[in-house]
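Predict the structure of PQQ-binding-like beta-propeller repeat protein.
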Amino acid sequence: MQKSTIFKALFLSTALGAVPALAQVPPTTVTPGPGEAGDPSHKVTKSTIYTSPDPSTPQPPGINPAHLPNIDEIPASEIPDMVPQQSANPKPEDWPAYGRDDRQNRYSPLKQITAENAKHLKRAFVYHTGSLVPKGKTNKWAAETTPIKVGDSLYLCSALNDIMRVDAATGKEIWRHKAGVKYESIPYTAACKGVTYFTSSTVPEGQPCHNRIIEATLDMRLIAVDAETGKLCSSFGFGGQVNLMQGLGYAVPGQVSMTTPPPIINGVVVVNHEVLDGQRRWAPSGVIRGYDAETGKFVWAWDVNNPTDHHQPGPGKFYSRGTPNSWAAMAGDNELGLVFVPTGNSAADYYSALRTPEENKVSSALVAIDVKTGEPRWVFQTTHKDVWDYDIGSQATLFDYHGKDGSVTPAIIMPTKRGQTYILDRRTGEPLPDFPVVEKPAPHPGNVADDPRSPTQPWSVAVPRLGFKDLTEAKMWGVSPLDQLACRIKFRKANYVGEFTPPSLDRPWIEYPGYNGGSDWGSISYDPNTGIMLANWNNTPMYDQLVTRKKADQLGLIPVDSPQFNPSGGGAEGNGAQGDTPYGIVVSPFWNDFTKVLCNQPPFGMITAIDLKEHKVLWQKPLGTARANGPFGLPTGLPLNIGTPNNGGPIQTAGGVAFVAAATDNQIRAIDMKTGKVVWSDVLPGGGQATPITYSVNGRQYVAIFAGGHHFMGSPISDALVVYALPEGTK
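Done. Here is the predicted structure for PQQ-binding-like beta-propeller repeat protein.
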């Protein structure tokens, strides 16, 4: 066999045993036919088998499980000045925030571990949270946890929001707060990405809750516990808790949830939440809210369709339904008094005709909100009239941009699923002159008569794209020539005219790079000394089709809040009812239905280092090996680094080495930042779909990764936090 043929076969053998992650529901392998575009029922918005609940309908059991009363409001003027926080200027040995510091750059000044000695890394300890899939229950586990480290302790959360304090050198558990989140409150993922460390301005040092851990939960509570003991802070909310379902109206458990650590800017805890995709147009609101970090009292709301009312709704009233929600980790700037909110779409991702002008302005955008008033100061949109689910999943990164003319601009990096990375002035939201954004023509008006597309879309033209060129029939892939032919036929059957191919009802359309493409919730890392941005990203197209309301009913696409809901009929991120609209949606990976191998050429996952000063790629490599992946979902055991889907982010260190897990081969890697060469790796006890951290204790540097696995990614579930260090005396 020729060398090229061998490599082709090896590439193919890796091709995405974990692809079910892409649809994030049991994937549809059969397209729904011609879409029934001529069926007169395609204009019907009301299903024959369910009705949309009124928002005033009493919330069912499981909502507000702690039976918390409504919280009062407090004027922003009464919030005390915030004392300097651990995350403002961290000690070199600490990692006190989700992205290490307030800038969320995922960069550590530690340099004991280098590209030369990383090969000697060994496990120092493994800590188990105890949170695993209950016997007899459907696997929804994907912990996605990034610990924080302050002083001698790690603070982290389990997949169901228990909070733990662990000795950072030994892994011994110091305390545990049991949050009491029930299985029924899990949305489509049992995940807790992290917690927030806060130092009080009003509680004296040495008193309970001077330092506290604040967490947002899957069942929509804001919890504050004492960092020293893990006991609830009695002065916060009601016995340490706040009910965040207040004002949202009717929802069922799991329909609204929180998975990211809330940032605290100038004493205000800013909370966002995810709303299950694909359910209905009039889903619960995506409102963004601010609460006093000292007392838990409400300060303001940003409700997109009620832009001038920043108060809580009165009796019998609710935040506006169906508005864009934000589920990604947020970042803030204390000096500017801004929180940077990455937004998603209005409810019903793939149909935009019912959205208001206010919603269209702020969907799939980065919105800067004043943390004392709730008023947006600026909006930068990354996709206009988004019907591709290109919501922003990444956290923004703050940095100071040094221009060649000597100027210094407070800037912000915003990665996206499109693989477009936008560099903006964080004071104004305008693209920096060195990083222009160009509006390029896009296909319009579209294929759905009552839902025209935007004539242009924004492209960041000075940052190398995290992605490849448009698909072509010649680039279709397969395990054998017959499989390649099947993919070519599938390609021909679909509508495809490039990245912004409009949704269609008559036949499927190809969505590429896909809603799991580019950068997602792992975001990027940035070294402020070198100006190098490091990003791991996905290359995973989707195969979508709108269906009539009648067809959606036949397929069992019913919203989760309906009594007739059938979990096997679709949920979030994949097939969806899109209730209250004329169309349901059918979504599957663009793959061979038999082998479950993607139809586009590998690699399916990459990692790229970009010099933002010079606007060029330093190196780019496939991320992920074939060892745990293969056709039909079978692992091949092959060590070739060919690129697999990945979720979770990278970190960089002053030692010239980066660390990343994320890929579906269940490994963590150390990478030489100069060359992109993997200098060390280890197989984890579960999937590494999380972002690592590094810290030191008594002069010894550690690297920690939560190997929780990911049910969507098909990687094994675990409850293990795995921590590494160099053997004592290593140089």
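Residues 426 and 570 are 39 Å apart (CA to CA).
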